[in-house]
Prior knowledge:
This protein is mainly α. The chain is built from 16 helices and four strands.
Amino acid sequence: MFQKQIKIEGEENIKSYEYKGEDQSISYNLFINELTDKLLEYIPIWLSPNILSIFGLLLNSITFFIDICFTGLKGNDDVEFYVQFINCILNFLYLLIHKFVIKQAKRTNSLNCLVILINHSVSAINALLISINFGSLIGFDELYLYLFLYFPIFNVFYFNKWEEYMNGELILPKFNGICDGIILICFFELLTCIIGNEFWNFSFYGYYFKISKILIYFCFIYGFYLCFISFTNVSKKNPDKVSKTSINFFIYYCLNLLTLFLINKSKRSNLIDYYPKVVIFTFGISLSQLIGEIHLSHLQKLEFNPNKLFCLPPILFPSIHILLGYFPKKDFIYTIDYTLLAILSWNMIIYSYWIYNASIEISDILFINILSLEERKREPINNKINILIENNAKERLMK
């Protein structure tokens, strides 16, 4: 767990890394790009892009806390209009801050591996928080609905990082979740704020429809379509690499699909029945590190190796639940609840440590500070340790 995240053979690639990315989304090119360019003038030139990334995570954490306060850990279909409005404002602010990060990095000539790693690592958590918040606000109270909402978001994020890992550039499609998806979420939250929660339920000639479920099923299908586009882009640009370097990637992907099915089928658990947000959050944190690892492999230009992940894999949750489900005593059956909470705590600590550790190592390699634009004035930590060891050895020899 405490091994080096940056390999020796990847250090030179860290130093020479150049970000290549493009957002082709409709909303970004229509008004978000121009709006962020104008607002960027009011952001101090000394403000580090990494501070903006962390502030974006803080905004989504506040939104998540508000959601928990008003809808609980399960969710309900009766959310106050002002909660919808507050979430709409905070989500839109997060979108602007997310776009500020790269622009501020270019503006201050600090677009390096550290900025990209922190931004994309916290974005994986933000995607999880946004999906839970939105699902809760539109009336979801069952685990399978949260899974159907989050899994396509994870799919697209995962395949986008894989495409960047394979092709060396991040190309976001014309309708993507990062920009257009958040705009759509803000629109639905504002619409619900004005019309009310009954917007998501209507009847037509005696037939009852739940718009939220129709929307999520559409997103689920569209998510696979975007994954297919990423796969096609890789196949066109690097046809020889697809079969050779993608085995680990698709093994873990299929494992997560299996997990989605098994968790949905799990029964007789307090957390699964009454606290689906806890389960999906536990599920998402481990997948966030998976995204982080493939991104770090891209930065170092090394082979993606998911076997070194220290977050406990999602497949462990339904496996433990199935095993414990055969015990006749109620106390044994509900042990899954405490197990899931323990796994959640472990994964949050490990992923936080992973981001911090990788960031420290990159900052040492590049001689830069993590949260400021000032160049680091001291030697890297590893060199300092080596110097101390050499000095101690010389002193022993002199004696």
